[in-house]
Amino acid sequence: MKIRFSADAADADDRVLQLFAIFAPAVAASARDPKALVAWHPVAAMARRLFPEAFAALDRAAGGAFPFSKDQAQNAHAQWTTDWLAWERSHDTEYKLKAAVIQREIAASGGSADARARLETIEAEKIESYQRRYEEYIRIARALQALIQ
């Protein structure tokens, strides 16, 4: 897509259509993935500062802030939290199953040092993956919360 804002493209309707074409995919992406809203929002804010008249027209047509409203940010935050809780439950179940297999092996082997070491490795892996995902969860949740304010 080639976009030019030259003297020839100064027509307000053309500018509005071009901005709509740029941000419509961002709206769709942010509806699927809350991280997309966090990524696109600063770009939209900069574009709003550059083209306030065009965004005023888009806001009127959208019945609120285009391309992202506070309602969209709230919905994205709720989706992000729901996704986190589902991941957390799944993660816990996955590692409980892994640990149970090794614990049965430990019981059957009379306490094999190798099996105990694998269990410790599984527990460390569980904590590490949880911490990585939690850091991402918090970073995105805070960014979404800031958009709601």
Question: Any descriptors?
Answer:
0% strand, mainly alpha, 84% helix, 2 domains, rod-shaped, single chain, 149 residues
How is the secondary structure organized here?
Layout (H helix, E strand, L loop, with lengths): L11 H21 L1 H17 L1 H11 L7 H40 L3 H36 L1
- List the secondary-structure elements in sequence, H or E: HHHHH
H/I helix tally:
5
Per DSSP E runs of 2 or more residues, the count of β-strands stands at 0
The largest β sheet comes out as: none
Q: Which structural class matches the secondary elements?
A: mainly alpha
Strand residue content: under 5%
Termini gap = 34 Å
What does this structure look like?
The protein is 84% helix and 0% strand. The model has no long low-confidence stretch (mean pLDDT 92). The protein folds into two domains: 57 residues, no CATH class; 78 residues. The two termini are 34 Å apart. It contains five helices and no strands. The protein is an all-alpha fold. Helix 1 crosses helix 3, helix 2 packs parallel to helix 5 and helix 4 runs antiparallel to helix 5.
Provide a quick synopsis of the model.
By secondary structure, the protein is an all-alpha fold. It has helices spanning 12-32, 34-50, 52-62, 70-109, 113-148. The model has no long low-confidence stretch (mean pLDDT 92).
